[in-house]
Amino acid sequence: MNDFSNSLFRSINPELKQLNNNLEKMIATENPILYSAAEQLFSAGGKRLRPAIILLISKLTTRQEIISTEQKRLAEITEIIHTASLVHDDIIDDCDTRRGIETVHNVFTNKIAVLAGDFLFAQSSWYLANLNNLNVVKTISKIITDFAEGEVQQGIRSFDNQISIQEYVEKSFYKTASLIACSCKATTMLNNSKLQIQNDFYMYGKHLGLAFQIIDDILDITSSAKNLGKPAGTDLKNGNLTAPLLFALENKPELNKLINQEFQYKHDTNIAIKIIKETNAIQKAKDLAEEHIQLAIHILETKYTNYNIKDLLSASYYILDRIK
Questions:
Q1: Residue 98 main-chain phi, psi, to 5 deg
Q2: What does the mean pLDDT of the chain come to?
Q3: Which residues partner with 98 through β-bridges?
Q4: Sequence ranges of the domains in the chain
Q5: Residue 99 pLDDT > 60, yes or no?
Q6: How would you classify the pairing of strands 101-102 and 97-98?
Q7: If you write DSSP's letter for every residue of 130-185 in order, what string do you get?
Q8: Helix/strand/coil for 43
Q9: How confident is the model at residue 249 (pLDDT cuts 50, 70, 90)?
Q10: Which CATH architecture fits 3-321?
Q11: What is the pTM of this model?
Q12: CB-CB neighbours of 115 under 10 Å
């Protein structure tokens, strides 16, 4: 585990440690190339924020705060699905690094990376089926469909300066928020929570996921490559127009020229970042992220005050604090 997990999630540190140990066993395969490719991503670490949230919700909605074996497995499945999506994302975006280390397709080839991502999706599906809960299978399976929908939407709107903030938020749901929303809902299904509780935590996860993606997009503009673990400005370079750029376009129409020429020149992304920082676009994007965080927190503070929500609130605020 990393320092992040140790400090923020003390109450579930044993479960997170077990999760890290189990992940390596779950991706085991007799094919050494596939195993090495899958292990490449997990060895890079990560904050394990998604499974941590699932484990915290499991404790919150279970009698005596006992996390079941099935809920622990769901947290592991969620991390494998997330990791599989990263392999494919890195190929599409042609990223050289992820979390500070070389991406799978850079170490191996695009073909091996695609197969590694498919292998991880297949493994997650097998473990998901073994939960023997049809409603959970249906809920989690929708995530993979949403990933594909999000990638297609992003692909066909590449360098499209007519995209609206609402369309951007919708795409962000498919690419990021669906995973957190559906996983949060599924973990309450596993302890037979009432439908209202399932829906509450679906919406909690949805707003948390949207905020997470918006902040990721802000960091792509404001952070260094060293802090990001991948090159800054990657979204711009790949034609993925995000909240900071869309808000900046309202006051800086000269950005349209850079978009139309698809940031083809070496310094185009740096010029665009400089223009964006001259506006209030980053603050507007922060405000949008905070709006979603507050909606997530509102669900906890209005309906679950008689539960121990401290850790979930801390996780929610952490997402916002990444840009402070």
A1: -145, 125
A2: 88
A3: 101
A4: 3-321
A5: no
A6: antiparallel
A7: TT--HHHHHHHHHHHHHHHHHHHHHHHTTT-TT--HHHHHHHHIIIIIHHHHHHHH
A8: coil
A9: very high
A10: Orthogonal Bundle (1.10)
A11: 0.91
A12: 19
pLDDT (tens digit, 9 = 90+) per residue, 150-170? 988 888 999 999 999 999 999
173, 209 contact by CB (below 8 A): yes
At 248 the three-state DSSP class reads: helix
Q: How far apart are CA 198 and CA 257, in angstroms?
A: 46
> Which of 73-77, 145-149, 227-231 has the least mean pLDDT?
227-231
Residue type at position 307? Y
Question: Tokens for 203?
Answer: 């919406």
Give the length of the chain.
Answer: 324
Cα–Cα dist 170/213, whole Å: 11
What are the structure tokens assigned to 267, written together? 């310094």
Phi/psi of residue 205, nearest 5 degrees: -65, -35
Give the whole-angstrom CA distance, residue 17 versus residue 315: 18
**Alpha-carbon span 106 to 120, nearest angstrom:** 18
